[in-house]
C-alpha cells in the first residue's frame, strides 16, 4: 500500500530589503485587484445574465487583463500569486454554495491581510535560502526552528502586517500574543496526542458562541477552533483518534456517576448536587461524560449516549 503524503506548514518572520518590500507591495496590490475584479465579474454575470463564472473563466480573463493597455502592469509580478488569488475566490464561492460562509466580500486596502502565495515554479529553495520569482536576492528569513530533515517547501506564502505606524505597533503586539497562544496550543495538542489513543471533544458551535458579547473575546482568545484543528491533524500523524461528541449531548447536566439528567442547568450554575448524593463541578462532570461518550463511540460507533436511569 502506498504511503500518504502529509504536508505541514511552518511560519517564519522575514525582513525584506527596500527593493523586495517595494516589489511585494506591488504584488499585494495586484493580487487584491485581481481578486476584486474577478469577484465583480462573477457577481455581474450572475445578477445580469444568470450565468455562473468558473475559475477557468476568470483565469482566461486574467490573461486578457495583462494584455490590456490600462492594466498591463498586472504582468509585472509573478503569475503564481495572481492565479492563487483566483483559486482563493473560487474556494470562497464553494464555501458560500455549501452555506459554510457568507457571500465573498471585496478586499480593501488596510482592512484585509496582504498576502501572496508562490508555488514551486515561482520560487527557488537552495542551501536553506528562499528566492522568490523576479527577485535577485534571497529573503532574510529568521529560521526560528529547522525544517524537517530532507524536506523542501512546496509553496511559500508571504504576508505583511498592517502598514501605518500605530497599526504596526498594535499588529506587533497582537502578533506576539498570537505566537504565544499558538505555541501553547501546539505544545498542549502534541502532548495530548502523544499520551492518548483517543481524545474526545465536544462539537461546539464556536460561530454561534462568539455572538455572545460577554464571552466572545474570551472564546476567541482561547483559540478553540485552532486547537481542535491541531488535535485532528496531529492525531492523523500519530495514528490516534479524535472523537467529536454531539453538541446536543447533555454532558453538563448528566450525572457522571448514576446517569440522572437534571431538568435544567443554567450557565451560572458551576456546581450542582445530584439526587444520588454526588456533588459535581460542572466542567469536570461534563468532561467525564464527554470522555465516556467518546470512548463508547470509538468502540461501538456513532449514535450512542450514556444510559439514563
From TrEMBL:
InterPro entries recorded: Cas12f1-like_TNB, RNA-guided_DNA_endo/Transpos, Transposase, Transposase_put_HTH
| Protein's UniProt name | Transposase
In this protein, which residues make up the domain named Probable transposase IS891/IS1136/IS1341? 160-213
* Domain Cas12f1-like TNB: residue ranges: 224-290
Where does the chain cross the membrane? none
Q: Which organism is it from?
A: Rhodococcus opacus (Nocardia opaca)
Entry similarity comment: In the N-terminal section; belongs to the transposase 2 family. In the C-terminal section; belongs to the transposase 35 family.
Q: Which GO terms describe its biological process?
A: DNA recombination; transposition
Q: One MF term from GO for this chain?
A: metal ion binding
Domain (Transposase putative helix-turn-helix) ranges: 6-50
